[in-house]
Design a protein that fits this description.
By secondary structure, the protein is an alpha+beta fold. The chain has 2 domains: 6-170, Ribosomal Protein S5, domain 2, CATH 3.30.230; 183-311, Alpha-Beta Plaits (2-Layer Sandwich). The protein is built from 10 helices and 9 strands. Strands 1, 2, 3, 4 and 5 form a 5-stranded antiparallel beta sheet that branches. Strands 7-8-6-9 form a 4-stranded antiparallel beta sheet. β4 (160-164) and β5 form a beta hairpin. α3 crosses α4 (125-143) and α7 (209-232) runs antiparallel to α8 (235-252). The longest helix has 24 residues, at 209-232. One of its GO terms (molecular function) is ATP binding. Pfam families: GHMP_kinases_N (PF00288). This is Mevalonate kinase.
Length: 312
């Protein structure tokens, strides 16, 4: 058995803000992917993944019992395949903010959900919200809480515009310019990030009125503007707004930025060669970068591993 491929994702804008109803923009990142497989000769990793799937199946059983109107799974088939050694064969790095658990959730839903919403049908807002709710409950097994956006992105394999918690839609993004010199890139922090503790820090910060007001007046304002800029292809204005978001992250999200990147983060803001952002919840994994001139940014960041994601 080998299931279809599900891809990683990158949340370009909206990290943490989407919890507080800022806009967000998430795009599939086809460089990494995963698929459900059964093999006669499992590796050590496959055995580990199989054990994790076993625990996940227990979560799905409970979720189904608590939310019978939301979703039901063919548990018999799922448990049989797990018994036969099924695992998730994935190149998506875990704890890196690119949706490793999202791709797994999408693969399980695709293979085992009864009466599933398919990618081929007319995806009304109701259907998208239904999928997002199902995926959020499924993925909460891995993170404690989940918006359901990562699996949604992986399942649809389309860019997703988040207007608010209750308003998401597939969207088109400007096509990449092969001859373009600007770019969006990832930096490998070479550390694994844990989502749950980072989200917990953010939720604690929200108890502080000053932090709440900063989220509303600054973070949401610049995030919403950056999303609009990106979708319209207005990259000149985009860099101004991304610079502001980079400053906000360094001032208000410092615990989520690995310490060894504090200096290089500031350097980007001062030199205007690049602007860094959190990729997902932070704490490690990838860091997201935006550069007006990617070659210049590469030179400034030559001590780090960079991956170009999008050219403009």
């Amino acid at each position: 058995m080998k299931g279809p491929l599900f891809y990683s994702k990158i949340l370009l804008f909206g990290e943490y803000g989407i919890i507080k109803d800022s806009k967000g923009l998430s795009i599939p990142y086809n460089y990494y992917n995963g698929a459900l497989k059964i093999t006669a000769e499992p590796t050590e990793e496959a055995v580990k993944s199989n054990e994790s799937l076993r625990a996940f199946a227990t979560h799905l059983k409970q979720m189904q019992a608590e939310n019978p109107e939301l979703v039901s799974f063919d548990m018999q088939a799922l448990e049989r395949d797990i018994e036969n050694g099924m695992y998730f064969d994935s190149s998506i790095p875990q704890g890196y903010g690119v949706g490793s658990s999202g791709a797994l959730v999408a693969a399980i839903y695709d293979q085992y959900a009864n009466k599933k919403v398919t990618v081929l049908e007319n995806l009304t807002r109701e259907k998208l919200l239904q999928l997002k709710a199902i995926f959020g409950k499924m993925e909460s097994f891995f993170h404690g809480t989940s918006s359901g956006l990562d699996p949604l992105n992986s399942y649809l394999s389309l860019p997703i515009l988040i207007n608010s918690k209750d308003n998401v839609e597939p969207t088109g993004i400007p096509s990449q310019k092969e001859e373009g010199i600007g770019g969006v890139f990832l930096i490998d922090s070479e550390m694994v990030g844990e989502t749950a503790p980072m989200v917990s820090i953010f939720m604690d910060n929200l108890k502080n009125e000053g932090f709440r007001s900063m989220m509303k007046s600054q973070f949401t304002k610049y995030t919403d503007a950056a999303v609009e800029n990106f979708l319209k292809g207005d990259f000149k204005t985009l860099f101004g707004n991304t610079k502001e978001l980079s400053k906000i992250a360094l001032s208000h999200f410092k615990p989520m930025i690995p310490e060894k990147f504090h200096g290089v983060w500031q350097q980007g803001i001062e030199s205007n060669d690049y602007y860094l952002k959190l990729c997902g919840s932070g704490g490690g994994g990838y860091i997201l970068g935006f550069a007006p001139d990617f070659e210049k940014a590469k030179e400034a960041l030559k001590d780090y591993k960079l991956e170009l994601v999008y050219k403009f």
